[in-house]
Each structure stands twice: as structure tokens, then as C-alpha cells.
Amino acid sequence: MREDSVLERVIAPVRKLVRRMSAQPQMWNLFRRILEGNFREERRVISEELMPEARRIRREERRAPRVLDLGCGTGELAPAFLSRGFDYVGVDIEPERIEYAQRTYPKGRFHVMDAGALRYPDGYFDQILVTGVLHHLSDDEVRRIVREMKRVLRPDGRALVMEDIALRGSLNLLGALVHLADEGSHIRQPKQYAPLFVPELDLKATYPVRCGVCDYQAFVLEPAGVEVQQAG
């Protein structure tokens, strides 16, 4: 029996379980909290990369920073912004997840929307967050979304992308299993993600992040050309 056939037979029941849970927003949220260490690392990266500029906006412009959580799912990261007084908007293509998010986090605004055709004016958002979305999409689909991100982002705004990555030779076996079960058909290596942001967004920094058992790569992006710095 071929090795890939054996692997598929092993992973098929896990994928079935993941699909079943993902169809139930509350169960899916609990599942992700367990796997991703209650999102502690995601919140840490958000705090380091987005909050300093948010404080400047409050201080100098005397208003709440506007953030778009693109592909927000069940809104699990909404509290990281709502607790700090952000004007928070979450969009996702799955109506049941948006309904759950709006019910759970009523202070936020949630909408069913195609990320490649955002219904917001140019330059509306100060910041954009994308977590675990692009690895489900083809290169062309990602580029379409990136163009929309640039359009709705302020010229001096910032986007933070955290995506599942394929790590060759990694000892994180549980994380590798989660990737297989996730069915993201476009999980890329870090160097394969970076070109997808060009020429719309400039990469300012990129580094790996271990969120529970999941391996991510963080990409800090801005519309304007500032000197690129690499880490990790």
C-alpha cells in the first residue's frame, strides 16, 4: 500500500471530526482555544505590533482606532481590541460564525462579506488583522484580497497577518497533524507567502510564532515603503 494512501486513511477520521466541529461555532471556538493555548501568543503579537500605533491615534487624533478583522470566524480575537476601546469590525464569509460572533461580542460590528470585495471606503481602517485565512486560498485569491486590504487601509496604516506554515523537519508532530486535518490546501512555507503581498503592501518584519501546538508566521505589512527588517 502506498505511503500517501496510508496517511490519508489515518487522517480521514480526524478531518471528519474537524469538519463536524467547524460547523458548530461554539464547539469550533473551544477546539481552537485548546489547540492554540487560549490565543495567548496571538494576543501577544497583536499587542506588540498594533497597540503602539493605536495609542498614538488616541493621543494625537483623539478617536478610537479602527481595525478590520478579516476572516474573523467566531470573533475569538475580538476581545483583544474591544477591551482596549477599538472601533472593531469583523468580516467572514460564513453566516453562522458571524451570527455567533455578534451574539457573543455585541460591542463589535460583524458582517458577512467577501474579503476580496470589501464594502468599505478607501483608507477607512487604521489596522487590519488576518489570522489563519490565506492558507485556504490560491495565490490569485490571496492577491485579490491583498489589493482590497491596501485599498481600505490608511496610507500610514498597518496590517498584521498570521498564517499557518509548512515546516520541513519540524519536531512539532501534533502541529503537523493539525495542519493535515485542517484541510487548508495552500499551506505555504514563509518564503512563499511574502511575494503574495507585493506590490500592494511592503513587508516590514516577519517571524515565526508558536501558538499552542500550531506553527504560524507573522507578517507585519504597511502600504508605505519603510525599511524592511527580518527576524526569526
List the helices and strands and how they pair.
Layout: H1 3-22, H2 25-35, H3 40-61, E1 66-70, H4 78-82, E2 87-92, H5 95-104, E3 109-112, E4 125-131, H6 139-152, E5 153-164, H7 173-182, H8 190-193, E6 202-211, E7 214-222
Parallel strand pairs: 1-2, 1-4, 2-3, 4-5
Antiparallel strand pairs: 5-7, 6-7
Helix pairs in contact: 1-7
| Anisotropy-based shape | globular
Number of strands: 7
**Sheet with most strands: strand arrangement:** 3-2-1-4-5-7-6
SSE succession = HHHEHEHEEHEHHEE
* Distance separating the two termini: 40 Å
Task: Work out the radius of gyration.
Answer: 18 Å
**Are there runs of 5+ residues with pLDDT below 50, and where?**
168-177, 226-232
> How many helices does DSSP assign?
8
The quaternary structure here is single chain
Q: What is the strand content? A: 15-25%
List the keywords.
232 residues, alpha/beta, seven-stranded mixed sheet, 8 helices, globular, disordered C terminus
Structure write-up:
With 232 residues, this protein is an alpha/beta fold. The chain has helices at residues 3-22, 25-35, 40-61, 78-82, 95-104, 139-152, 173-182, 190-193, and strands at 66-70, 87-92, 109-112, 125-131, 153-164, 202-211, 214-222. A seven-stranded mixed β-sheet has the order 3-2-1-4-5-7-6. The protein is globular.
Give a summary of the structure in a few sentences.
This protein is α/β, with parallel strands linked by helices. The chain has helices at 3-22, 25-35, 40-61, 78-82, 95-104, 139-152, 173-182, 190-193, and strands at residues 66-70, 87-92, 109-112, 125-131, 153-164, 202-211, 214-222. It has a seven-stranded mixed beta sheet with strand order 3-2-1-4-5-7-6.
